[in-house]
Amino acid sequence: MNRREMLTTLGISVAGLSLGKSPGFRSRAQSRSLPNAAPNIIFIMTDDQQQRAMSAYGNPILKTPNLDRIGAKGIRFTEMFVTNSLCAPSRASFLTGLYSHTHGVTTNGATTSIFRDQPGLKDEQETFVHLLRRAGYHTALVGKWHLRSLPTGFDHWIVLPGGGGPYIDPEMITNGTRVKFRGHSDDVVGDQALTFLQQRPQDRPFCLLFNFKSPHRNWVPATRFEKAFENIEIPIPRSFGDTFEGRPQALRKTEMAVSVMPDFRNRGVAETLPPEERKRRNFQQLAKNYYRTILSVDENVGRVLDYLDKNNLAKDTLVIFSSDNGFFLGEHGLFDKRLMYEPSIRVPLLVRLPSRFKSGRVDSKHIILNIDVAPTILEIAGAPVPASMHGRSFLPVLEGRDIAWRDAFLYEYYEYPAEHCAQKNRGIRTDRWKLIHFWEQPEEWELYDLQSDPDEMKNLYGQSDQEDRVRELRARLDALRRETHDVDPPGPTPQVQPCVTGVFGEGHMPSGNWRWRC
Q1: For the chain, domain boundaries
Q2: How far apart are CA 252 and CA 485, in angstroms?
Q3: Which of 40, 194, 336, 397 sits at a 20 to 30 Å CA gap from 442?
Q4: Which long-range contacts (CB under 8 A, 24 or more apart) does 492-496 make?
Q5: Which residues contact 174 (CB under 8 A, 6 or more apart)?
Q6: What architecture does CATH give domain 13-23+40-516?
Q7: Element (H or E) spanning 156, and its range?
Q8: Could you give the CA distance from residue 273 to residue 61 in angstroms, rounded to a whole number?
Q9: What is the pLDDT of residues 54-91, one digit of tens each?
């Protein structure tokens, strides 16, 4: 039994284990095409973190001083959105600069036979990592990948399996070999990020993707944070008591209600409580454990930022922080994501590069999307940006230049029938209006005025005084789809399929016998 096999068997902590080389690795000392000022790059991603789940965005309970450091030394964006609020499709969009209908990762590969065999990100699909590596960057990935395919384009990668595996004593995969670690997943990922930084080649810039499992379900905090917020009452969202009056049946049929989520059946919440009390108790358990997992993210981000400071790297290292999608944390009485409501699609975005961008700025003017990250990173690095990318570099915005920018974007969601029973939907969001379309039969629509109704409680679709606005928004939605080559198959709109009975996917539910029915 070799050393690696022994470590795997014994589960010994191996924070110093050398990271595995990806297949096809070769030195590119002769193939660099980067400018002398090409910065190092660290892209940090959490999982399911809604924008307000950090103190920089005004959370009164959860303090995230290390994440806040990124925005304080750079730019904090308030209008940052994902184009598909589901983990794998959004992660692929961050990497490729493309909508999910183009890069092909439209679902997580749900437990129904319809999606189980869907491929992950194709090996031949070009990402910003491939392009940076080709230009001369040393590239690495540590932490969550979640794309149903092995990573490509990386000199080094060590990833959590599948949707992230367990929070405690996780396995990680490096070049096809599984290694067992001791400790909390966030700490293990933090250790591996520091290991890469310490072992990286010194003769060229690096790009590190630093991805956490937290705060994804099932929200198991590190031991040191188990009692955090114990004696604090988490404020209930204004829309917590939403009754969905005047809203589509598609919304009512989702399985996202905090009141019936099974996660806390054995965590001190009695099933015999009245429904409203159970709903409130479930929410407190959910919010506290969700926040607790973010505390360990913040600590480990701080460790990496401290390393940059101590090694004179901070000034010339581009640091970007975001999340793969947002999350309902009690808004509308829901949890999870998928729907086009604001808590689900709006995510944090912090960007800093002290040598080039002014610090302490807040941008609330520009609509930034996950598909914009890839072209932005490439332009900052001085690498070519493919014309095929749907996204647009927001480097001029980072530099404080006044430029024409988008005033609307397309949203899409495809994973149905599947867990949580959120029907396929797409829509358009402008700075004020949002039009949502559940396009399979029976078709249903929603229209919201975000200026007068920021919590999206009053559906204006079907009102006579909104007919002209609906026509205008539908025309713009069609135009956005044409621009991105989003075309439905020919023929009539399909009848909605019944959601097959099954179990939630691995890592989602603490109870193996929980069933979903759409």
Answers
A1: 13-23+40-516
A2: 31
A3: 336
A4: 493/439, 493/440, 493/441, 493/443, 494/440, 494/441, 495/440, 495/441, 496/416, 496/423, 496/440, 496/441, 496/442
A5: 17, 19, 20, 157, 158, 159
A6: 3-Layer(aba) Sandwich (3.40)
A7: strand 156-160
A8: 27
A9: 999 999 999 999 999 999 999 999 999 999 999 999 99
